[in-house]
Amino acid sequence: MFLVKGVIGALTQTAIIGMLLLLPARTWQWTEANQFLICYAILNVISTVFLAIKAPASLEARMEMPIDKSQPLSDRIATTFLLIFLIGWFIFIPIDVFHLRLMTPPQATISLLGGLLTLFGYGIMLLAMYQNEFVTPVVRDQSDRGHELRDAGLYGLVRHPFYAGFILFCAGTALWLQSYAALIVGLLPITALIGRIYVEEAVLQDTLPGYGEYMSRTRYRIIPFIW
Q1: What is the C-alpha separation between 17 and 37, in angstroms, rounded?
Q2: Could you count the other beta carbons within 10 Å of the beta carbon of residue 165?
């Protein structure tokens, strides 16, 4: 039952993104978007099955709602802005591709590289979830789940590898769907994401033993040697 719920959630998420892309485009005949949606649906289902088998606690954590009364007000605000900007960003892509055409679209080679970057970013997000069962959509005290510090694997390189993968995923998607303008507009959800990182780290320092030491030991948040 838990696996079925996860698969349904994965397909529902894909359908929502499909509506955000195809309805503003006013056409179903958008090759790059259809390729993206098919790949995203397949990846979502495969990753859901993988986590259900190999890391069920991670899948359960990711299935939490992104807005919850238990999260701090600061995170609720940051998450709300992130969701609004992200939805707006998905809607902007087809508007730019089919109506605004603000910039010359990427060549086929760049679009292909964007697709590969999307897959790479998704892989990082999946690995981050696999390595840390406490990665949830909601920033909150997880002492009730026996919250433990994870500092190995990707978490030994940066403190927020899931967010790093998410940024790569978004950048790759903009290029795959042939919109340089969307690549630039993508800075809006990234700005909200950065705000959420500061909120999350403040909560973790207060609730997760050893996190302050981990911050001093693993200096970079999402980009090694930069930030």
Answers
A1: 8
A2: 22
CA dist 31 and 37 (Å) reads 10
pLDDT tens by residue, 157-195: 999 999 999 999 999 999 999 999 999 999 999 998 998
Residue 224 lies in a domain: no
pTM for this structure? 0.93
CB atoms within 10 A of CB 126: 21
Reading the block at residue 214, the tokens are 């981990």
Place of tokens 């790759």: 172
Query: Hey, how many other C-beta atoms are within 10 angstroms of the C-beta on 184?
Result: 12
Query: What single letter denotes the amino acid at residue 17?
Result: I
Question: Is residue 184 situated within a structural domain?
Answer: yes
Check if the beta carbon of residue 60 is closer than 8 Å to that of residue 141.
no
If one counts the domains in the chain, the total is: 1
Task: Check the CA dihedral 54-57-61-63 and report its sign.
Answer: positive
Cβ–Cβ under 8 Å, residues 67 and 138: yes
Q: What is the CATH number of the domain that holds 147?
A: 1.20.120.1630
Confidence of residue 3 (pLDDT cuts 50, 70, 90): confident
Distance of CA 215 to the CA centre of its chain: 22
Residue type, 78: A
Q: Quick check: helix, strand or coil at residue 208?
A: coil
